[in-house]
Amino acid sequence: MRLATIGTSRITHQFVKAVKQTGRFDFVGAYSRSEEKAKQFSDEFGGNLNFSSLNDLANSNSVDIVYVASPNGLHFQQVVVLLKAGKHVICEKPIFSNVNEFDEAVKIADENKVYLFEAIRNIQTPVFKTLQQELPRAGKLRSAVLQLIQYSSRYDQFLDGKVTNIFSPEFAGGALEDLGVYPLYVAIALFGEPEKVAYYPIKLSSGVDGSGTVVLAYHDFICTVLCSKITYSDAPSEIHGEKGSFRINNSSNIARLEWIDAHDKVLEPVAEHFEADDKIYEIGNFADILEQNDKTEYLKLRNLSRVVLKTMETARKQNGILFPNDKD
């Protein structure tokens, strides 16, 4: 399939490099509001198309699927144009601002017989797959602490008075949307939809959360999710059961899994797989679904995306963190 991109940022560079590594899609071109940037990006990766008009990209007969990595607040508008034109879409996390947008986009995708994916790499890694298989070893689960705390250089700009996209409600920014989505995906992929959600954010003057703690309540255990763009920690994440605990190195780049028995307290390596660009796994999964028309796997991913988005929307609206695309 012939793939084009929206966005020319670092994450788009990483995605196209991973596409090249897998060989599962053929990169053909890029879109940017700046024609010069689109051409520069396309040339860098061997594409022969560049677009400065979204409609031209959507209507191109030389493009089958589009990877969207624009600012969060632009995702819905751009994705809908592409879906209506019959393009498959891979949209970078967080896929949309709210569930209303998600449901409308899914309806349009189904009507046009195309696939809509959310790019979220952590749940596709080999080590995460091992964690899913090994989880029953922990016995009855009682608690989990999943975190992603990464200081952002853009916070320095924020402190100097410049509000960049990631700290702007206009572009659906904030710590929960940008970082919290990773540990939330881990939690919901492993434990399912929580019964209750409570969020305790540190709100910035721009109106979004710079950091925060999400409490996910299940029937007989609690999962705590910590996310921050204004502090830093490299502490691991843990899942605690009555028979023992699992530890993962990081909620976004899941590369190492360890086990600690509740009785002998011995730390045991379970799985380790470091990949320079772990986007190759999600790309492979999306390509398999498209090639095999695997509706079962597609619907599983789609339903997971919806629950994660619903959880984030609930959490931020509890605290008056609102985006322009939100509806009452």
Folded structure, characterized:
The structure is a single chain. The chain is an alpha/beta fold and 328 residues long. It has two domains: 2-115, 3-Layer(aba) Sandwich (Rossmann fold); 123-274, Dihydrodipicolinate Reductase, domain 2 (2-Layer Sandwich), CATH 3.30.360. 37% of the residues lie in helices and 25% in strands. The protein is built from ten helices and 14 strands. It has helices spanning 10-22, 35-44, 54-58, 75-84, 99-111, 126-134, 153-159, 175-191, 279-292, 295-317, and strands spanning 2-6, 26-31, 49-51, 65-68, 88-92, 116-119, 141-149, 196-203, 209-217, 222-228, 237-241, 244-248, 256-261, 267-272. It has an eight-stranded mixed sheet with strand order 8-9-10-7-11-12-13-14, with helices on one face. The chain has a six-stranded parallel sheet with strand order 3-2-1-4-5-6, with helices on both faces. This is Oxidoreductase. Pfam families: GFO_IDH_MocA, GFO_IDH_MocA_C3. Residues 150-247 form the GFO/IDH/MocA-like oxidoreductase domain.
